[in-house]
Amino acid sequence: MVPGNDTQNSGFLLQGLSVEPELQPFIFGIFLSMYLITLFGNLLIILAVISDSRLHTPMYFFISNLSFVDICFTTTTILKMLINIQIQSKVISYGGCIAQMYFYMQFAALDDFLLTVMAYDRFLAICHPLHYTAIMNPRLCGLLVLLCWIISALFSLLESLLVLQLSFCTDLEIPHFFCEIKQVVLLACCDTFLNDVFMYFTSVLLGGGPLAGILYSYSKILFSIHRISSPQGKYKAFSTCVSHLSVVFLYYCSSLGVYLSSTGTHSSHSSATASVMYTVVTPMLNPFIYSLRNKDIKSALKRFFQMAVIKRKIVLDLKNHP
C-alpha cells in the first residue's frame, strides 16, 4: 500500500491540546517558556561540562549527552506546535509528520538507553571502584554512546518505514500536538496488524530491557552500599546516585502515565495531555535535578559565569581604550 493522494497533498492536521481559539495564546506562552527553560537549562549543563576539565569524567560525559538529547527531543515535539499556533495553522506535511515521528522515537529511545548506560556507570563506580577508571575509559564511553545512537536510529527507522507502507485516505486529523506513532497508525485505512505487533514488540524491548538493566544495576549498588560500614561512606556512595535515580523515576513514571492514558481511556486528548509530562516537563526538570544537587556542576557554572564576566570586561576595556 502507498499513501493516499489526500495525505500526500494536504498532510495531516494536528489538533493540539485544545480546540478553543481563546486558549491558544495561553498555551503558546506556557509552552514557549517551558521550551526556553529546557533549552537554556540543558545548554548550561553542556557548557559547564565542556568548559571545566574537572568534569571530564564518564558520569558528566553521559549527563552532557543526556542534556543534548533532551534538547533535541523537546525541539522535535514542541517547535512545530509553537509555529502552528503562531501562524494559526494545524497542518503538518506528510513528510514532516514522518520525520517528526522518526526523530521523536529516536530521541525517546536514546533517553532510555543513556539512562541505562548511566546506571551501569554508577554500578562500576560503586561496586568495582578499583577497576572503574580502567574499565570506563574514554573509548568505551564513546562506544556506548555510539551504540545507543545506532540502536535507537535502527528501531525508529524500522517503525517509520512500516508507517510509510500505510494508506491514509480521508480522516487526517491527529488528536495530538505532534505526530505520535500510535495516533498516526490509527488513521490508516488499511490493515495495521504488522505495525501494531512491531509497536508492541519495541515497547516491551526498548522499555522493559533498559528498565531491567537499571534495576539490576541498582540492586547490586544497594547491596554494595549495605556492606559499607561507615555511615558517611554509605551517604557518599548513595548521594552519587540520587540525581540519576530521580531522573529515572521521572522518566518511567511519565512514560507509564502516557501508556495508561492511551490504553485506559477512550480520549485521545487525555493521552496528548499526559504526553506533556513526558515530552516537555521531564526534559525541563532534568537540568535542575542534576545542577541543584550537584556541587561540581554548580561550581563549574559559577566559574563559567565568572569567566564570562571577566571576558566581557576585557572586551569593553579594549573598546574604550584602543
Automatic annotation (TrEMBL):
Molecular function (Gene Ontology), one example: olfactory receptor activity
UniProt keyword Transmembrane helix, yes or no: yes
Claim: Zinc is one of the keywords in the record: no
Gene Ontology cellular component list: membrane
Transmembrane segments annotated in the record for this chain: 26-50, 62-83, 103-120, 140-158, 197-216, 237-260, 272-292
UniProt-annotated location(s): Membrane
Keywords linked to the UniProt accession: G-protein coupled receptor, Membrane, Receptor, Transducer, Transmembrane, Transmembrane helix
Pfam family, one: 7tm_4
G-protein coupled receptors family 1 profile domain segment(s): 41-290
Membrane topology term: Multi-pass membrane protein
Superkingdom per UniProt: Eukaryota
Role noted for this protein: Putative odorant or sperm cell receptor.
Name of this chain's protein: Olfactory receptor 7A17-like
